[in-house]
Specification:
five-stranded antiparallel beta sheet; elongated; 5 helices; about 20% helix; about 350 residues
């Protein structure tokens, strides 16, 4: 077995794409390419996805009169925007390691052999159609906002009022009028009752809409929006101990690690795989090198413990597979040299490990 080459740590920001299925390409082993196919093995990367909620508070035009006219104790008194960290998820994703590309040469000529590769060249299957892989992304909740202009519901008298105080008084009367109308409809005592169920629903929805919009002129309004920020980490062969991958601020949301306006989010990755040092002679090393030249090289990932911390609280803590902490081995070429029926080999595309061999 051969240890993975040293890989540097990278940190970058991306936008989370929508859910999609990975595309693959079939490459046939034919005379034109000397019956050989070049492929890459993946290395492990971790996508740390932050789900952020943005809440926008806007004061109403009549907030000084909120308690006097409507009994609202805590209206919004100034415009403000606050961010909250709602969730953090981790995706273990394999990316092509171009420094570890190999060629497999097939000896059998009596059957048509082929290799399935991802678009980035990572091996997915041999002599088999790859299993469909759909990459799941974090579900982003729907925010709430209002496109209604409350002033469009003001009465003519309120619009023509000579002062803000007088206008607030008239709008408060409108609100109480809407509440009274709703109460009369609910009790069946309204002079003009809706003729059927659909009309009843439409009337009640309109009353509720107007009341909410006009009340917002006193209480203020609140709008929410959800979005994600993703930081991708590609570990090397060493441990990662409480590395600041990003920071979070209630005023700014997720910010870069070097922006001290936010509190740090720590990422740790501790290798749990026991390393075995093999003392091989020069002759054995040569045999091992020849073995890797002639077969199908695949990954044997190692195990690690991954944690994400924020404000002294663990947001993530679980065991993960890490290619860089593992080793490689070879599926000897003669395993595929079946002249009657092609041997099928399935890989874990994100890890480069063998999933199944069907003979």
């Amino acid at each position: 077995m051969i240890k993975a080459k040293y890989l540097i740590l990278l940190l970058l920001i991306t936008v989370v794409p929508t859910t999609f299925a990975q595309r693959t390409t079939r490459v046939n082993a034919v005379k034109a390419n000397n019956y050989g196919v070049t492929y890459s093995l993946p290395k492990t990367s971790f996508e740390v996805i932050f789900l952020v909620k943005k809440t926008t508070y806007r004061k109403g035009d009549f907030y000084p009169y909120a308690q006097r006219y409507l009994g609202i104790e805590n209206p919004v008194t100034q415009d403000n925007v606050l961010y909250s960290l709602e969730d953090v998820s981790i995706i273990n994703k394999g990316v092509a390691d171009k420094e570890n590309s190999f060629m497999v040469e097939f000896r059998t000529r009596s059957v048509e052999l082929f290799v399935s590769l991802r678009e980035d060249g990572v091996i997915v299957a041999i002599n088999a159609d790859p299993e469909l892989q759909v990459l799941q992304k974090m579900d982003v909740p729907q925010g709430k906002s209002s496109s209604v202009n409350p002033r469009s519901y003001l009465s003519q008298e309120a619009l023509m009022a000579g002062s803000t105080a007088r206008q607030a008084e008239l709008v408060a009367r409108q609100i109480f009028g809407l509440r009274s109308n709703r109460s009369d409809i609910l009790s069946g005592e309204a002079d003009n009752m809706p003729p059927d169920g659909n009309a009843y629903k439409m009337v009640m929805e309109e009353i509720n809409l107007q009341e909410k919009a006009l009340t917002g002129l006193f209480a203020g309004s609140e709008e929410t929006e959800y979005f994600t920020r993703t930081y991708t980490i590609v570990p090397d062969q060493g441990n990662i101990e409480r590395k600041v991958i990003a920071r979070f601020s209630e005023k700014l949301g997720v910010v870069d690690a070097d922006n001290l306006a936010g509190e740090p989010v720590y990422f740790s990755l501790v290798n749990k795989t026991q390393q075995v040092e093999n003392q091989l002679s020069d002759r054995d090393l040569q045999r091992l090198e020849n073995k890797f030249k002639e077969g199908i090289v695949y990954n044997i990932p190692g195990k690690a413990n991954l944690t994400v911390e924020f404000k002294n609280k663990e947001l993530q803590n679980h065991e993960v597979d890490v290619v860089q902490y593992g080793t490689r081995d070879v599926l000897v070429r003669k395993t595929l040299d079946n002249t009657k029926q092609p041997v099928k080999v399935y890989f874990y595309p994100e890890l480069g490990a063998i999933k199944q061999i069907i003979q």
